[in-house]
């Protein structure tokens, strides 16, 4: 059996609207125990991603009040996506090439490329069979880089 991103990703995708404050975003991240939220517009269409890194680098080091800064102002965009059928080594390579820690997983069987999950370096460590996979070297490389 070939290991895919779909096998490793987290299927519960947490979202927040682009006009919500980053204070609300940080609270939701804490409550849901996640390191990123998918940012959607008023119609529910994905626009970007807000990560803990975005909060630290774009808000915490400024002198702005967190209840006045919106997700739209700090979100990472455009979204970097990966097919659910891709291999973990492709995901690791994409993370390294784009210098990101979060990839939005899309279902490319659907013509709309609907988001179905997210994958982070931590997901590689959670998946117990990764050590036996043929992608072991690439996966170890990304874990060394990010963890």
Note the topology.
Layout: H1 5-8, E1 15-17, H2 22-32, E2 36-40, E3 46-51, H3 52-60, H4 71-74, E4 81-83, H5 88-98, E5 103-107, E6 114-119, H6 121-126, H7 136-146
Parallel strand pairs: 1-2, 4-5
Antiparallel strand pairs: 2-3, 5-6
Helix pairs in contact: 5-7
Outline the structure in words:
- With 147 residues, the chain is α/β, with parallel strands linked by helices.
- It has a single domain (5-146), classed as CBS-domain, CATH 3.10.580.10.
- 38% of the residues lie in helices and 19% in strands.
- It has 7 helices and 6 strands.
- The chain has helices at 5-8, 22-32, 52-60, 71-74, 88-98, 121-126, 136-146, and strands at 15-17, 36-40, 46-51, 81-83, 103-107, 114-119.
- A 3-stranded mixed sheet has the order 1-2-3. Strands 4-5-6 form a 3-stranded mixed sheet.
- A hairpin with a 6-residue loop joins strand 5 (103-107) and strand 6 (114-119).
- Helix 5 packs parallel to helix 7 (136-146).
- The longest helix is centred in the N-terminal third of the chain and has 11 residues, at 22-32.
Q: What is the radius of gyration?
A: 16 Å
| Helix and strand composition category | alpha/beta
Strand content: 15-25%
Number of helices: 7
Uncertain segments: none
Helix/strand order:
HEHEEHHEHEEHH
CATH architecture: Roll
List keywords for this structure.
single chain; alpha/beta; 3-stranded mixed sheet
Provide a short characterization of the protein structure.
This protein has a 3-stranded mixed β-sheet with strand order 1-2-3. Strands 4-5-6 form a 3-stranded mixed β-sheet. A hairpin with a 6-residue loop joins strand 5 (103-107) and strand 6. It has helices spanning 5-8, 22-32, 52-60, 71-74, 88-98, 121-126, 136-146; strands at 15-17, 36-40, 46-51, 81-83, 103-107, 114-119.
